[in-house]
Amino acid sequence: MRGGRPEKSELKQSVWFWHLKAFSCDHMAITRLVHRTGVTGSVGDEKEIYSRMCLLVSVFGLCAMLGSIATEKVSPRPSLKSFRDDYDNVAKTCVAVGYVKENCKNNHNKRNMIIAFQTKGIANIHTVSQGKTVMFGEVDLNLGGGYNSVKGVFIAPKAGVYIFGWKIFTDTNKIAYTSLVVNGKRRAYNPCHNNGHGIDMTCSEMAVVRMAAGDKAWIDSFYSTASINSKWCSFSGFML
Q: Which pLDDT score is estimated for 127?
């Protein structure tokens, strides 16, 4: 019942009940039916016929009522949260029992994957030509396996919002203009221009980027040749 109004199925059951009650218990109706069929006999015979007819009508009404209930279509619509909970439960069960198809396990793991990397140092390079990738040789952390130290490129394991940060160290009277490149497009700049004063210079920058699975990010030199002191450089990132 919704808001004081009976459901459709409740109305059907009520109608069948009162039709059955009215017809099966109406002696006059049964008597008229007997006379119409031309059946005659003693009072005892009429009572026997009445009883049988009552039983027959009652059974017929009951069957009709049950048939109506059985054919009533119910189409529950679960909420989105309920659907997601059921899906997660299936995925967890799939992983727990060691289901043979790796896709099931992989999809579940990707949803709960922590993605973060931290690199430092530059592999045997102190100058980087314009447009070339800055290579960070030592990998301290690579959760999710997104950073490729051979190519100096981070590949997003899954879609999301990522935060990147990098630090460049340059010597006195040197420059190192670097940028964060995502899929070939520069998204953030870190110009480090050391005008002297007898000291070295450290320059840092951070960027927030939305990435799709498989997108690539790296650091390059965007202006002239970058002079970089490898010991104090780093490149890191993680997914929110």
A: 87
Cβ–Cβ under 8 Å, residues 142 and 148: no
Closest CA to 120 of 110, 132, 135: 135
CA distance 55 to 143: 76
Among 3-17, 64-78, 89-103, 155-169, the minimum mean pLDDT is found in 3-17
- Which range, of 41-50, 144-153, 200-209, averages the lowest pLDDT? 41-50
CA 15 to chain centre: 46
Q: How many residues does the chain have?
A: 240
Q: What is the pLDDT of residues 69-115, one digit of tens each?
A: 555 555 456 677 777 777 777 766 666 665 545 555 555 566 788 99
Most confident among 48-52, 114-118, 127-131 (mean pLDDT): 114-118
* SS3 of the chain: CECCECCHHHHHHHHHHHHHHHHHCCHHHHHHHHHHCCCCCCHHHHHHHHHHHHHHHHHHHHHHHHHHHHCCCCCCCCCHHHHHHHHHHHHHHHHHCCCCCHHHHHHHHHHCCCCEEEEECCCCCCEECCCCECCCCEEEEEECCCEECCCCEEECCCCEEEEEEEEEEECCCCEEEEEEEECCEEEEEEEEECCCCCCCEEEEEEEEEEECCCCEEEEEEEECCEECCHHHCEEEEEEC
pLDDT of the residue at 19: 47
The DSSP bridge partners found for residue 178 are: 190, 221
